[in-house]
Amino acid sequence: MKNGFEIIDAHCHIYPAKIAAAASAHTGEFYSIPMAFDGTVESLLEEGDGAGIDRYLVQSVAVTAKQVRSINRYIAGEVEKSGGKFIGFGTLHPDSEDLEGDLEELISLGLRGVKLHPDMQNFKIDDYRYLKMYELCEGRLPMLIHMGDARSDFSHPKRLRAVMEIYDGLTVIAAHFGGWNAWDRSLAHPQPENVFYDTSSTTPMIPYDMVMRLFDALGPERFLFGTDFPMWSPSEMVWQFMQY
Questions:
Q1: For FRET with 37, which of 44, 56, 64, 226 sits at 20 to 30 Å CA-CA?
Q2: Per-residue pLDDT averaged across 147-175, rounded?
Q3: CB-based contacts of 168, cutoff 8 Å, min separation 6
Q4: What is the pLDDT of residues 83-137, one digit of tens each?
C-alpha cells in the first residue's frame, strides 16, 4: 500500500507455466497485438509489483466447455498460494451441459466472480439460449465480461444492455471501457448503475477526449483500473492511467 491507498489491477490473465506462452500467443493472434509477457504468475508478480500494484484480480477464459472446471481449479489454487494478493474469478462456458454444477463448484472453490469472453467463446451476449448464465449469477456473483470489438457485434454494448434489463440484480464489470476499439458504441449504449467498467486494453490506444467523454457520461467512480496482463506492461498501464 502506497500513500494510504492500494492499487488493484482488476483485469489479469494467468496460465499454468507449461501452456502460458502458447495461451498468451493465441490471444495475441486473435487481436493481432504482440503480447508483452508470457502470462505466468511469476511474470505477473514481478512486473506488477514493480509497477506498484498491490493486488490482482486473476482469471482465464474457457474456450470450450470441457476446460471450465480445470481452469477454475487452477485459478483457485493460485489464489490460495498468493497470500491474499490474488482475487480469483472463475469462468463458465455457455455450451456446458451442467452450468449449475459448474457454478456451484466455482463458488465452493472460493472464487469471487465469473469471467466471460463472448468473442472468444463465440456467443452473443443476449442470445436467449445462454441467459441461464446470468440467471444463475444474479444476486450471487459479479461477472467480468469482455466488451466490444469493431470486427463483430457479439459483445456489442446494446446486447449487454438488453441482458441488464432482464437481470437487473446482476452486477457486471464491462471490460475495456465497455467497448474495446469501438468506444463510440459504449457512449451510445450506456449501462445501468450496477454495471462498472474497467480500463484494461484501452489506455494505449483510446483518444484522451474520448476518455473524458466516457467519464462525463458514465461517471469516473464507476471505472476500475486494469491492465489486461500479459498483453500490456503494467508499468506503462499505471503511468497512462495516472494521466487521467
A1: 64
A2: 96
A3: 192, 194
A4: 999 999 999 999 999 999 999 999 999 999 999 999 999 999 999 999 999 999 9
Instruction: State the cell numbers at 121.
Output: 467463446
Strands (E) across the chain are located at 8-13, 55-59, 86-88, 90-91, 114-116, 143-145, 172-174, 195-198, 223-224
Q: Is the peptide bond before 207 cis (omega within 30 degrees of 0)?
A: no
Helix (H) or strand (E) holding 102: helix 99-108
Q: CB neighbours (10 Å) of residue 38?
A: 17
Q: Which amino acid is at 235?
A: S
Window from 26-30, 94-98, 190-194, 199-203 with minimum mean pLDDT: 26-30
C-alpha angle 150/212/58, rounded to 5°? 60
